[in-house]
Amino acid sequence: MSSVAPDSGSPAAPANPIACDIFCAVIDNFGDIGVCWRLARQLAREHGWQVRVFVDDLHAFRRLCPSLELERARQTLDGIVVEHWHEPSHAGDTLEVADVVIEAFACELPPVYIAAMAERACVPLWFNLEYLSAEDWIADFHLRPSPHPRYALSKTFFFPGLGPGTGGVLKERDLDAARAAFEASPAARSDWWRNVTGHAPPPADATVVSLFAYENPAVDSLLEQWRDNASPIVLLVPEGRISGALARFFGLPSFAAGTHATLGNLSAHALAFTEQPGYDALLWASDVNFVRGEDSFVRAQWAAKPFVWHIYPQADDAHLPKLDAALAHYTRTLPADARAALERFWHAWNGAGQPDWAEFQRHYPALKRRAAGWAVELAQVGDLAGNLTSFAKTQLK
Ligand code: TRH
């Protein structure tokens, strides 16, 4: 799969590369390290930065990056140094402070590292990289400085977002070209299907759906609708939190990678979790993508296919305004009926109502046009790594 996946351009090699440390505490799942690893690779490959990633959970990381060795305290992958970060005080075997320090998602930097930042002859540029949100207030807070209460240091808030004035979202320079090459090549598509599912590509009248989601009560109704659909549905399910529901539906003990099952017009393949660059091809091979969290949500937008977002649930339903803010951007130019259908479907997939597949399918042509238009619109906000490096250049003297 990695042969068709984007490779983030040729390495730039400036004479005095900017050194950058990224600190990542994994809260759960794969999004924290998924975003940090994608950013690290882009900073190294496209901008020639010398990157080090401190990460506290190598097990989660290895799912995205199988060549990672769990027992090593320090290793180099794709030209990036990976340090196993033993929170909270550990800051690597030798304390070296980088030119740019990124604390991902408000994780706490080691106190000894902060103290060393303050003592550095040239004070580093310190970012707090926030979670992505499509809400309007993001643009007002993006790039605001926050002085440290004790040291002569200032932290800059970097807010990823979907609208102008935000930090944008990650996008590799060659991503569109890699997608276009995959979509234009029946051989690449056919190889992908055989390698990943063990089967030939499905017939043209089938709708291919990728399903990456948290546990979700709405899935039972949707599986029934797909089983009873007039035309074939081919479902591709990376092994994970939704797999148990598939096993129950098909009356199987599990829905582990390699399992295939058919009921009515629904046939489903359980896929192995791939290395991170391979995930894009799954989105390109599908007609509709169900995604979750943050990084797969962004990848689905670049895949330019209709998609359904299972947002990361937060206490007190704090995620619901974020879901609606994303919908407002994404559906902006859709005709009213298609817009309402998509809103209903996303809401149902996030706990409010029942998903109506027939209605979704009826609006598919309009949703597909909008998905392509939205990818162009979103690209105008600029890629996050490019936005971050441009800002850094203005600050580093
Ligand atoms: O895994 P996620 O749900 O991650 C998160 C975390 O829960 C985090 O705490 C939360 O704050 C954040 O979401 C919003 O979903 P996400 O962000 O899509 O990350 C999944 C990563 O896994 C993404 O980088 C794509 C990658 N992936 C693969 O590498 N291979 C695969 O086969 C699949 C399905 C995904």
Automatic annotation (TrEMBL):
This protein's name: Protein-arginine rhamnosyltransferase
Catalytic reaction(s) noted: dTDP-beta-L-rhamnose + L-arginyl-[protein] = N(omega)-(alpha-L-rhamnosyl)-L-arginyl-[protein] + dTDP + H(+)
Similarity comment: family membership: Belongs to the glycosyltransferase 104 family.
Species the sequence originates in: Paraburkholderia tuberum
Keyword Metal-binding: no
Job of this protein: Protein-arginine rhamnosyltransferase that catalyzes the transfer of a single rhamnose to elongation factor P (EF-P) on 'Lys-32', a modification required for EF-P-dependent rescue of polyproline stalled ribosomes.
GO MF annotation, one: protein-arginine rhamnosyltransferase activity
Pfam families, per the entry: EarP
Signal sequence interval, chain numbering: none
Keywords: Glycosyltransferase, Transferase
